[in-house]
Amino acid sequence: MTYEEFKKALCRNVQNMETAQNKTIRLLERQMICSDPMAVHIMSVMNRHMYGRENILIREDMLCAMWSLKREEQIQYWPVRPLYERYRQEGWQSILPEISAGLEESDKKKDVSFTEESLSYAVCRGHMRIQPVNFERHRHTLENAIHRKIGDIALVLQLIICEGNPDNLTMQLSRNRIMTWERTEDQLIMEAFMNSSRKMPPRLYLGSDRRPGFPYYEGVFLPDEKGRPTKIAPWNPMEGRTGYLLTTTGRINGAAAFFYPGVKDILAEKMRGDYYVVFPSLHEAMIHPVACVDAEEIRTSVQHINAIYGEEEMLSDRVFCYRRNRRLLQLL
Q: Per its UniProt record, what Pfam families does this chain match (predicted)?
């Protein structure tokens, strides 16, 4: 079955599930433009929650489910490309039960309510995540936000208000909201990092690998997990100059993976020494061993990428260097 055939069959199979009843199922295709009012509405809701704007094209093929819960719209989605890779290896039995369980689990979350009046630490602690943003572009929204600033990057504490779809429906937690939690901001940020790491583990791939999506069980696992780890040779000047792509298994807000606890040191071990890191977008970081490339060359490259793709997904124009022996991240 080709990828295009799989997309249509997947949507049809999910629509026929018992757990999909009373839910709107749509296939949103990369950079799609369509006249289906419901698909357009779903795209608008997703983009509004992900980027704060409605007029942004879909970045990748996604299967989406939308339904109403207590008069509020809920969305859950699955990137299609990773599902197709799993289908090729394991068949429908590896995919459909998981999606059905996800839709059923969403219905069971009716007792979880996030409102201005009822936000408590006990309810929210498992739903906190970290989102990276460019500090200068978002300075006006960060004045009362819980965040950690590193160079021109802000790592912002977010609350997932629809756990079945952790990458889209979020709200920013402010200092006012957590006054009664009896937790420091550093403690909350660390908890959010741990949640993010469990939900979306970090992965390292060859920079020369241009696939739009990667199977869950591939990559260099940080830390080690079961799968088929990608072979890397950072001492090879050509491979090191091309660099390595660091992201998360969901490839959403993947730049945050670099700041997960322990990841910087694991990368230093894999790179066998100091390395440069740049952030071409919110969704990824590029890693280069210091011995293989000049910092100015990397700076020119990331600034060129930002100029081409604009500010929508921009994270940083700067070059960082991690010093292995001192365990220190420097802004160059």
A: DUF5688 (PF18941)
Only one residue has tokens 């309810």, namely: 123
Q: Give the type of residue at 211.
A: R
Classify strands 202-206 and 218-221 as parallel, antiparallel or unpaired: antiparallel
Let me know the angle formed at the C-alpha of 289 by 263 and 209, rounded to the nearest 5 degrees: 80
C-beta atoms surrounding 210 within 10 Å: 8
Per residue in 127-164, pLDDT tens?
888 989 999 888 888 888 899 999 999 999 988 766 54
54 phi/psi in degrees, rounded to 5: -95, -25
Averaged pLDDT of the chain: 79
pLDDT reported for residue 69:
64
**β-pair type (128-134, 72-79):** unpaired
Cα–Cα distance, 329 to 27 (Å, whole number): 41
Picking from 141, 164, 138, the residue whose alpha carbon sits closest to that of residue 152 is: 138
